[in-house]
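TEACHING EXERCISE
Course module: macromolecular assemblies
Task: Read the component lines below, then compare them to the predicted structure of the full complex.
Student: A.B.
Group: 4
Components provided:
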Amino acid sequence: MTKDTDHLGRPIVVVTGMGVLTSLGQGQADNWTALTNGVSGIRRITRFPIEGLRTTIAGTVDFVSVPEPSAPAQSQRLAELVIEEALAESGIGRVGDFPGPLFLALPPVEMEWTQRFALAAASGANENVTYADLIRAAGGGGFESYYRRFLFGSVGENLAATFGTKGSPVATSTACASGGTAIQLGVEAIRRGETDAALVVGTDSSVNPESLVRFSLLSALSTRNDPPSSASRPFSKDREGFVMAEGAGALVLESLSSARARGAVVLGVVEGCGEVADGFHRTRSSPDGKPVIACMRAALADAGLAPDAVGYINAHGTGTPENDKMEWVGVSAVFGDRAGSIPMSSNKSMIGHSLTAAGAVEAIFSVLTIRHGLLPPTINYDIPDPALPVDCVPNVARAASVKHAISNSFGFGGQNVCVVLGAAQ
Amino acid sequence: MAHDRDALITGIGLVSCLGSGADAHWDALNAFAPVLDTDTFSPLAVHPLAPLALDTQIPKRGDQRQMEAWQRIGVFAAGQALDSAGVKGNTELLSRMGMIVAAGGGERDYAVDAAILSGYPKAENPGAYLNEHLLGDLRPTLFLAQLSNLLAGNISVVHGVIGSSRTFMGEEASGADAVRIACARIAAGQSDIILVGGSYNAQRPDVLVHYEMGGLLRRSPFDPVWARQESGGGMMLGSVGCFLVIESRSHAAARGVSAYGHIASIKTDRCGRAPGQATANARAQFAAMQAHVDPAGAAVISGASGVAAPTVEEGEFLASLGLPVRATATALGHSLEPSFPASLALAAMAVKRGSLFPPLEASEREMTAPLTQALVTSWGHWRGESLALVTAA
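Instructor-supplied answer key:
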């Protein structure tokens, strides 16, 4: 009989349910088929006018709609859909009664232009609209639904109420590492013995003009607009930026003993998590890669694994010149001579960068990679970058038996998270 | 009974309308007079931040320029907390120090927004107009002042706290959950020392727009949180930065530092706020820590926001406890994310001194007996109920 505790005597944390939704489609099955066939979900933006924008493409999720669109409303809807899938697979709890807390990776919430324009119109100001006019209009009543929608707590509250998670819902933002942070919070809660199960969700549906422009102004986005499918090119010499995308992923995390007791199917094991912040700069990583290296090493140590045990790296792989270079610096330091021979592919080449959701979405794809023994490719790998001698599983999926994989997530603000995922025993 | 993994508060950084630092707050609370700005956003009033000597905590002007006010407030308070705990500049310790920040989002460029709002309705092609002006007029670095996790990011850059960095969002509850999870991590040995807190800039038209849409802001003239309930209640927002250094007893002992207080228990929960539900949560939370409560030496530091329904219900719950109460929003203004950490800071200061500060309004009871512990409440203005017990270290 296998043990229920890990190398440090902590409860082993397993995944018993997953739900995923990306620009490639809804659900594990459709996503996995597309992902392993090298399909790109990147498309021309049709949600809003693109005139004058440098980047006119994104991995939008256009097949889900909500009555009054906004990033929090859409993000909430995507979260609901992936949670439903994960709960159905896991079979845990009862409808509306999940036996544990919610850890939610959520994009920062802010009133958007639609609402500002509505307030400005209601203010009756003719020539020069100021914030004083907006405050006056806001006080005139009729905007309570905006107030509630744009509270930072409302998505988590609504999800907690709908799915009956226990305790105060925790919404976290660590930029593009948020999904990894949410997983880490869930793992830690189970290891502390606070709960037998945790619902972990990453969701992001914030492709709107201002979000796109903000990244554009930082020169972070690919402007290779034609064809859209060619824009996300991690590790390729001619990579020039990431592609914004939408998506969501939900994982039911559970202690192995709890999963075993209720006869649940174990999909994978969350063997370890590592996290190290970087104080070098607000958007750039330390040039020596120290924080990224320390983060991966911390994750492996947490998992009780030597670097030799890792058979696949689910790269952060955004396709920005700097990220991919820095990630390679980190990987080559941690894995030494093996670095270039460990397959390391980027899901973002196909789904784009789902930002807040990416860590959760890509952890799910990592579990599927292990389960299916099939490595999703890095598409658009046309011109190898001699500075990055990485085996990125170029363009075509590859069969491989993987026992342990790591999934990296790095974000603005010096955020670095690495999650170690292992095969179900 | 003292335990190695007890979570102690060993550092406090606190800035608000009352001043800068724990001692300044203690003095101000012992001679309380409300500090309000009734002009800038008239007819709304806010509790404005006291002037800060920014250079003392954020020495590089380049760093100051890279931040907006909410970040400067937070990074300043974080530095003060690190100073207070005696760990500022201790690279070895800071490199393994954890951090949990409760944050909303950052300021906007109000001039750019106003220009777009004015021009958009008249534009021939409104969509193209919006794109053109966002792309042309927004400062590229403003994004970094707006992202919720960039308060934590700036603390890493300016103060070198890099062991871990997590940002929680969700108004009042995020501040309480940040403290709860920090304490849980310490109790479980997942961390030895963690910087926890947040900041809030109330002097921002966009947040006033937000809470005005909710119909939740109190008009001047000023009246205190409980007295306000006789005329409909409401929030008066306050700019606050508060960070706490929370540390295991054994780690603090090894460093030879004294603590402000011991977070003996902390609970957080949610409900849909049907009448009585929040009270039920609070009663369950109180029951869980009641064995450690010393009624003769305890008082309540309440985070009541002033918003009518939850404040009235909390008032009734607190009356049932029969303890002296102080509502911190009367003095600091309500500050959403850092509101709970700030109340916890005031509680720890009072416990360390062994006395409660005087009533902030007529309905609050004088306490003459020595203070040995404090209960700290935070009922969010919309959601979230939290309760902590601070005892002597």
